[in-house]
Amino acid sequence: MLFLAxxxxxxxxxxxxxxxxxxxxxxxxxxxxxxxxxxxxLVDKPDGHRKIHKDPIxxxxxxxxxxxxxxTTGLWVWWQLxxxxxxxxPMGRMAALLGGVAMLVMVGVLDDRFDLxxxxxxxxxxxxxxxxxxxxxxxxxxxxxxxRPIPLGPLAIPFSYFLFLGAIxxxxxxxxxxxxLTSVGLVGSVTLAVLAYLSGQTLxxxxxxxxxxxxxGFLTYNRPPASVYLGDSGSMSVGLLLTMMAVNLERKGxxxxxxxxxxxxLFLPILDTAAAIVRRKLTGxxxxxxxxxxxxxxxxxxxWKPAHVMILVAFLGLVTSTALVLAFRWQDDRVxxxxxxxxxxxxxxxxxxxxxxxxxIYARLKQTFTAKxxxxxxxxxxxxxxxxxxxxxxxxxxxxxxALELNLQAITLDVNMPVAHEAFHARWKRLGGKLDxxxxxxxxxxxxxxxxxxxxxxxxxxxxxxxxxxxxxxxxPLLARFEQLIQAQQPVKGPVxxxx
Length: 500
Prior knowledge:
By secondary structure, the chain is α+β, with helices and mostly antiparallel strands. The protein has helices at residues 16-40, 61-82, 91-114, 118-133, 156-174, 180-199, 202-222, 231-248, 260-265, 267-281, 295-301, 306-330, 334-349, 355-373, 392-405, 468-488, and strands at residues 43-44, 57-58, 142-145, 148-151, 257-258, 381-387, 410-417, 422-429, 441-449, 452-461.
């Protein structure tokens, strides 16, 4: 493992200036950039589908946070050079790390302005991580899980890419409510500052304190009701910076990186991302599909106000941070993993988050095992209500009966209406069907509302059974009813403009 510096930690009194410098920068710069955001097009516009806040909101938080960090770090480097101190790490490595962060901010700004496609954004993220991992030297050669070291060998660099890219995108996905990710980043940076102080690492301590100051200053404007958002440039940068500092924390000799360290710092983003991947993959959607099944959406539907969600997130961050510090002091990561497991279980048990995803996993497993041990075609179906109360089960039963009558091979019914808090998924596949043959035809019939695809029926069948257009003609009444049910759903009323 390569480290940025191995120097005595700053005294507590010396931590005031980097904190105050970043804090003042954020407090003064945010109103300026907020005014410039509109003419530059850096605003988050409501789309009536997932982003249902009332007015366009500037999203320049990434520029604010990075400006505070760059100014603070620049002053520290200047002071070191002016006084001939030997605390500076190699300038080439600092340039590579700074270049990686700058690249990610640029990708985020472009995405905030032009809404980049997922693969283009991912390419930019890979370039940024490459600068951090290769010339920047922040790679993970071995990890520790449940007090056991695991050498990575040739997987060191791929794992490092996975770690950084995962953190970047997890943070990006969680940033959907006023002050949410800013609070996560603030608690995480304070935790890293404590750990860096205990391990005596100056530059990581300086960066963590500066990041905490910048996020606290920005939170003044980002707390509910927010007048400015972090944007993709800010959310992705927070995920990258927290992970960089976590990987860089000094460990004696070749000690492994405790996996609990980055997971505790980004527990809620990781939990939210894992649930989103399960939810989207098991319902046959792209992982880039927008929905309102994220943690903050679930809490909002349960009646939590944005300010209360922010407080809850900060409290959970303190819990995981406390467990992390104890694990660091005791040199045993099991206390951290136990804490994370209990928190995750608590979300599901108290029906705050994750229950829909658990139902999806259970339904898929049930369908798999039923298909192996049953000959009843009607029982070989999977249906899960993720959100809402629409009459989708009745429609599904009629579609399934018609599919059996028409000898179809598979059928899927999917509803995804974030603005109305309606989400439903059902699928059926004929036992011993012919889905893998070249002769099998497939078609998808979408339902579009206000320019958005909010529902779809997917059909698969064998052309030897009946002409396809005849099958569609017989299904037309049910498809028309599906469209009518979609149009009958009314958007949820109320103060939901804080959600994005």
